[in-house]
Every structure is written in C-alpha cells, then in structure tokens.
Amino acid sequence: MKIAHLIRRDFLTVDPYSGINAIKKQLLERSAIVVIDKYGQFYGVLTESDVVQNPRTLIIDCLTIKELIDSEDSIEDTILKMNAVKTEVFPVGENGNFIGLVFRNELYNFISEYNLELENVIKERTQAFEEAIATKDLMFSIIAHDLKSPFNVILGFTELLKDKLRSMDIEKSEKLISGMNSQARNTYNLLEDLLTWARDNSNKIGYNPVLCNISTICDEVISQIKDEAHMKDIAINSFHSSEVYAFADKNMVEVILRNLIVNAIKFTENHGEIEIYSMPVDEFIEITVSDNGIGIQEKDKTKLFKSDFNESKPGTANEKGSGLGLVICKRFIERNQGKIWIENKTEKGSTFKFTLPIYKEEIHNLQQKEVVNEEK
User: Fold this and answer.
1) Do 95 and 218 fall within a single domain?
2) pTM of the predicted model, to two decimals?
3) CB 3.0–4.6 Å: which of 81, 281, 314, 321 could bond 286 by disulfide?
4) Are both 101 and 233 inside the same structural domain?
5) pLDDT digit string (tens) for 152-194?
6) Which of 138, 152, 151 lies closest to 198 in space, CA to CA?
7) Closest CA to 23 of 35, 10, 8
8) Does residue 14 lie within any of the structural domains?
C-alpha cells in the first residue's frame, strides 16, 4: 500500500531564516511546519523535537529532517524509516519536488482500519462460503430424502395398479389414483421450492418491480392450487381493496402467495377455512393469509424463516415439504422492501402477514427517470 493517498497537503510554510520564538505556538498546534524560502526551495520539516534537541535562534539551524521520501513508498517502509530516525513526520516528494507530509499516527490508524476492514471481508466471505456449503448439503438432503420418498410411494401405487387393476374395484382404484395425485402434487411443490431456492442463491432471479393488482394475482394463485384445497374440502376466501396496488416484482409476489396459501392448506384439517385479505397501512399494503389449522408453537416461530432450520413437519394429510417455502417468502418480501411476521391467534390456526410498497404514480415516475438517467 503506497503513502500517496495519505499525504497531508494543508501544511504551513515558514522561511528558513525566521526566528524560532515567532513560530513556536504554531508549531505546537500543527506538530510540523514546512521550511521553504521565498524562491520555493525546500529545506526540510521543523518538528517539536527539533526545537527541544537543537535550541537555536534560527529555524535553519534546528532542522534534522531534510530529505524527501518518495510518494511511491509503501506505508510499511515509511513507518520503518520513521522508527529508525525516531520521528513522527516525513516530507514527501514527487519527481524530486516537495508535495506534502505524512504522519506516523495517521499511517498506523490507516493500517489498523485497513486490517479491521480486511478481517470483516474475510469474515463475510467465510460466512458466505459456509452458507454455500450448508445450502449444497441442504439441497442434497432434500433430493436424497424428501424427493426420493414420495417417488417410492408413487412407484408403489403404480406397481399395485399395474398388477391388480383388472381385479380391483373402482373405489379402490380411485383411492390409489387420488393418493398418487396427492404425492405427485407434494413432490411438484417440493421441486418448485428447490428450484426457486437454487435460482435465488445463484442470483439468477432478477428484481423487476411493476404495478401489481394483489387481488388479481391472488385469484390466479388460488386457481392454480384449488385442487389441493378441494381434496381436503378447504374453503379459501379472498377479499382485497380494488383501488390499492403494490409496486413489486409480480413473479415474486406469486411465489410468496403460493407458498403461504399452500402452507395454510397443508396445516389445515379437512373442512377448514383460509382467509386472504389486504389493506393499505401507511406507505405499504399489508397482506394477510390466515387459517384455522393446527397452528404453530411459539418456540418455532422465530426458526421458520431460517434455511438451517429445515424441519418441515408433515401436514394434516401427511403432506411433505422442503422447509424452504417460508425462507423463500422472507427473501422475496425483503427484496421488495417489505417484511413478514407471524401473529398470535387466541383461537386455532396461524396468521401470516407481510407488507409490500404501495404503488404511487409520482414515485414510480421518479424511479423511471432515475433509470433513464443511469442508462444515459
């Protein structure tokens, strides 16, 4: 690391033939004064120790630091030279011309801050590396166990149908096919979470905020997963303000709502009920997904949004999960400048709430202008 960018250039100058007493006060205030004559000739740097060690009348007779060090010198070499001659300051030159001063305490402070910054960078990279390893291990764990297990069930069902379909009554066949369909849906949801998680961790999911009608998006998501709710005879009620829009990434909002609603279906018993509604709160839209299912234990609430938790409990119909759905929700919500939390319910069930920024035309126009300016 060179000393070039640590040079102090706001120095005081004095003529070499000036008297010491006239500048003692200024010397105490500044620790060092540059000695240059009226023709611009550099003579050296006067320090407090010079006055103590060489109590002379004229400044030129007191000078001990007369040689320039090069601005290309490293901080480490400069400190070693300062320690060797026991000085707190050195004059710095460029192509043989004086340009400024460097002080030992400032060099030490810089090294200390630089080392601290390096330590922080190392810690951050170590943490990122450990998270990457944990993510890889988690992915393999899900693939090896959570994905393999439902396929074994599906294979068992198909083997049974293949061997005994002709002798099996309609009701039993329908039951087996229904079980296969349920396992296939669970596996698909699992795979969807896994792929979304992998894409997000490899930074392949872009952030493109647009005008979002929460009511429309919610209806689209419910339409996609209505069969899962129908199989458990769960009613989904959705009601939203038609005049309030969010400014968020539409694809992320779909993933968030799908995960929260599927999660509610998973932990709600047959003939249960799920409610989804939204309302404006200050500068945000607050969206709620509430169910009357089995609920969440207080000790588990803080763990649900952590990727290292990964203890997805089976649903009321033994549905499997990756444990990543809520982690993905939290990431996507935070990328959209919102937050997610779980509210306590006095009765049965769980209530998840999250916020998204409200769409405001003046804010959107300002952001569009900023994008155009950046492109220019």
Assistant:
1) no
2) 0.56
3) 281
4) no
5) 777 888 888 888 877 888 888 888 887 788 778 777 777 777 7
6) 138
7) 35
8) yes
CA distance 227 to 213: 23
| Domain residue limits at 325 | 206-365
**Sign of the torsion formed by the C-alpha atoms of 216, 221, 224 and 225:** negative
218 and 324 belong to one structural domain = yes
Question: Into how many domains does the chain fold?
Answer: 2
- Provide the percentage of residues in the chain whose pLDDT is more than 90: 29
**What's the whole-number mean pLDDT along residues 197-214?**
80
State the burial class of residue 203 (Cβ atoms within 10 Å of its Cβ: 0-12, 13-18, 19+): exposed
Extended beta strands in 123-228, E state: 209-212
CATH number at residue 83: 3.10.580.10
Distance CA 19, CA 340 (A): 72
Q: Between 309 and 218, whose confidence is greater?
A: 218
> For residue 157, how many other CB atoms are within 10 A of its CB?
19
What residue has token string 């997805």? 312
Co-location of 214 and 104 in the same domain: no
Q: Are residue 64 and residue 212 in the same domain, yes or no?
A: no
Residue 38 lies in a domain: yes
